[in-house]
Amino acid sequence: MKYLIKNANFIDWENKLVVGKDLLINNGKIEYIGKVEKTSNIKIIDGNKYLLLPGFINSHFHLGETVFRGHAPNNSLQSYLDYTSKFNKKLKSEKNHHIISAFSILEAVFAGTTTISCARGWLATEESKLRGLLGYPIMKSEKLMKYYTGFTGKFNQISKKFPKLFKSGNTQISLGLWIHSLHFLDEDALYLISKLFNQNKNIRLTIHVAETKEGVKKIRKCFKGNEIEILKKFKLLNERTNLIHVNHINDDSIKLIARSKANITICPTSNLFLNTGLPNLRKFLAAGINTSIGTDGLATNYSASLVDAAKVTYFAFRNLDLKPPQLLDMITKNPAKALGFDKCGSIKEGNLADILFFKIEDSALNPIENTLKNFIFGKTILPIHVMIDGNFVVKNGKIANQKEIINNFEELASKIENETN
Ligand SMILES: [Zn+2]
Questions:
Q1: Fold (CATH) for 3-54+345-389
Q2: Which of 11, 96, 176, 293 is deepest in the core (most CB within 10 A)?
Q3: Residue 122 · residue 137 · CB < 8 Å
Q4: Tens of pLDDT along 73-120?
Q5: CATH classification of 56-339, choosing from 3.20.20.140, 3.40.50.1000, 3.40.50.2000, 3.30.420.40?
Q6: 234 alpha carbon to ligand 1 midpoint, in Å?
Q7: How many C-beta atoms surround the C-beta of residue 421 within 10 A?
Q8: What is the Å distance from ligand 1's center to 16 Cα?
Q9: pLDDT tens digit string along 328-358?
Q10: Of 383, 345, 379, which is closest to residue 364 (Cα–Cα)?
Q11: Distance of CA 47 from the midpoint of ligand 1 (Å)
């Protein structure tokens, strides 16, 4: 479908407000921005009613955790992990993971997320039409053992299991490696991961780093070094690496990350929730590290909204006085770069048409001159329409099969909740 959005108001790739320009959407792309006079065979949208923003990009999300929201403990990471591991046996079937994933994605897209990065979720992401960097999980844990045993061969098979997703030219899904953290691995596994990562130059690596002080100590004991040094030693630290949290590291490690051009995704809401300590964002930014904001899973941050996460980031790092355009970059352009979705993250000619439509009469967006500030700091507003790849995935606040997704999830969630009481 070809669309012409007439007289659109939008935030452009330089984060400036543009008023009253036309956007031509064709073949999943933003083909032209300017004045379009004559049109045929095209659907016209009155852009004057909306503020358009680029789709948000969540560079750290867990699809399977939402089922624990509201009842998992939040006083420490360890108590959270101990609690969830009790249920993982029951939840590990692919069918259950798919039910929870579909629901997590539903919440994300309603909040304006058009691209996610997480482990597994291939089928649910394909069905949802969202973009995703979906990692193959490599973690020596009971829940994910079936992926761990013989992971080199299985990783190479995964794209054959989902031929529709991985056919050439598909810009929806890319496959990555997803390591929970170093303390679920040993040197032999790291050697194999390094081989996979360095032989396939288009795959990306996601890993939690230095989330808690206890975790840092454990890894230092096992590997005789800190996490960043170990990643460097195994050639796992470069511009294709996305380091998650990074709360407890020293200045030398920050320099190493900057030099290697690796990316960082901070998740302050989750850190505050679990009381794990916060990262040194000031030093990351001063070192020029590409830094994004993620939500983390929805049991350690109840909201899938990246705008909520940006708001928390502002207040968690109040002394940095982060500006609204900088916060917007951390949920759009920066994660686009970190995940390798170069044609996403801004409204620009030639970019993919991932666009959020917000109703302009919403009081939170007025006055329009202050729009970005109002948008980030005002009440959270949800997009009325969400376009991905030039198609409407959310239309008038609704998704075609939302009822079924919600019902399936509620049934499963109430089972888990009953078992906890
Ligand atoms: Zn995480």
A1: Urease, subunit C; domain 1 (2.30.40)
A2: 293
A3: no
A4: 888 888 888 888 777 777 768 899 999 999 999 999 999 999 999 999
A5: 3.20.20.140
A6: 22
A7: 5
A8: 32
A9: 999 999 999 999 999 999 999 999 999 999 9
A10: 379
A11: 37
